[in-house]
Amino acid sequence: MSSRAEPAVAASGVRKRRGPLTWVSRDGLSTLVFLLPLLLIFGMFSWFPILRSFVMAVQHTNLVSTPTFVGLNNFATVLADPLFGTAVANTAYFALLALIFGYPIPLVLAVIMSETRRFKGLYSALAYLPVVVPPVVGVLLWKVFYRGGPNGAFNSILGTIGLGPIQWLGDAAMAMPSVVVEATWAAFGGTVIIYLAALLSVPPELYDAAEVDGASIWQKVRHVTLPHLRGILFITLILQLIATAQVFTEPFLLTEGGPANSTTTVLLLIYQYAFGSSLGGHFGEAAALSLMLAAFLGVFTAVYFWLTRSWSTES
Amino acid sequence: MKTPFRIRGRKKVAQAQQRGIVSLADWRSRRIRWTLQTVHGLTLVLLLIIGLGPILWLAKAAITPTQDTLRQPMALWPNGFDLDLIVQTFTKVHIERYFMNTVWIAVGSWICQIMVATTAGYALSVLRPRGSNFLFGLVLATLFVPSIVLLVPLYLTVLDMPLVNLKLVDTFWAVWLPAGASAFNVVIIKRFFDSLPREIFEAAQVDGAGPFRLFWSIVLPLSRPIVGVVSVFAVIATWKDYLWPMLVLPSPDKQPLSVRLPTLERGIQLDLFIASLAIATLFPIALFLIFQRMFLRGGGLSGAIKG
Questions:
Q1: Cβ distance B263 to B197 under 8 Å?
Q2: What is the pTM of this model?
Q3: Shortest alpha-carbon distance between residue A10 and chain B (Å)
Q4: Rg for chain B (alpha carbons), in Å?
Q5: Which of A90, A165, B138, B213 is most buried, most CB within 10 Å of its CB?
């Protein structure tokens, strides 16, 4: 962008030494007026809070007493908290399950949908419908489906084939998979749309060429389509991992972290530190844990791109 | 300028030919045709069940009595209808209040986002004062900070704004103003302004237009399409938001639907609760059906940003 020619307004007039008067006459004041919303809003609600989180992480802050410097104590407190290990393990488990349930499905669906000859719009509209449902409504609706008794929606389906009832959300082993299934349902449509767009960009000549070589449909998918989607597949993978590491609404509303902390994710722990009824007010610890999560995600993303740089750039 | 046109032209031809993975020769084989049609039929059924099914269930349960939903949740035809439930969501739950709160929050956030993004995009792309690259770098940098880092310090900021000592908590401003700090908006608006031909600005300047006139009469009218895209994203994001409004709007009379619905769950009977969920879903689904093309084309973009 910087290689672009000098813009019209800045280019008019010769750059020389500027005094305050030339600044005003060269529309410096009106430029400032246009920059003011950006400076005020970003300063107050973005840049300052980001800096403040670093300060808070090394302070003891609880809104009542004046903040005191405590060094790395907050980090030590968080790391020593038995819930920390649980939350990290749960988040990793959530990310893993979301990967198994949610990563292949949109790709398979998109490849199938791209080959339909009729009702193309209907397919994508149906797949996108869950994304349109407000997340909170989706979660609460699934909570009704997940009712534990024999007359819960899912249990009554299982009942017709003589299974269940299952305590979808009440059983520590079932709770996390149940949460992930809901989250996958809510999100898969968006990824399908991304893949559908990417599939349009595969040059048709390549399929022609593959056919000349006698490739079957499966071989065309395997050797033409998938290599072409490689770049976008790498991006959606890392974006999904980053998103699952910050999951909040689903476990918060479906299980509140229970039963027995089996669905307490890192974000839920941060929420409990800062705003929870029993732990609440530990803003320093919450900031420390947020920073650790952000640092982890940053390093993880960097390593990911470094490791995959050779595979994702060609194509 | 020539290459993009050529590429776009080729893509159009490809779409017109409908050339995908399966070739015409493949379609002529009976075995392949049957397999494909079966796969497509099954996919359609599957999508109907998982995409439309829950929403149809929601619609059905919204007009059937609680006992039906509790005893036979999967019955295809209910034992009775209770259309009064829809009336009660207004008379008892007063869902219209929370709906209006959501609308207010969305409108305010939208205004704030558009104001910040267009003025910033104009200053950074057209006026370009000294240091604007650095400033744009600072905006870009916030894209790489996960929103979770902001949660706690931002909460303390709206609790007591530094320098001005204003308390925004429990006012809509606590949602409106932070929504404006969207780096994503600034980036795509600035990109768009960058692509506008400079000759127009020069011509306007020759005609004596100052920076304000240039912004209001030239740049804004030209940027209607991109402002439309940003607006749709802004409204959707507000409609979906849960954690932040829950934190900063503690009093029920200010809460939007997304915050109010979970608390309703404990307070009212199940059929009424489900009717409220259904009402809350109507508006976004209606919007989706109207702007379907925009969603399905732009959906990828918003999905990529929100992760």
A1: no
A2: 0.83
A3: 6
A4: 25
A5: A90
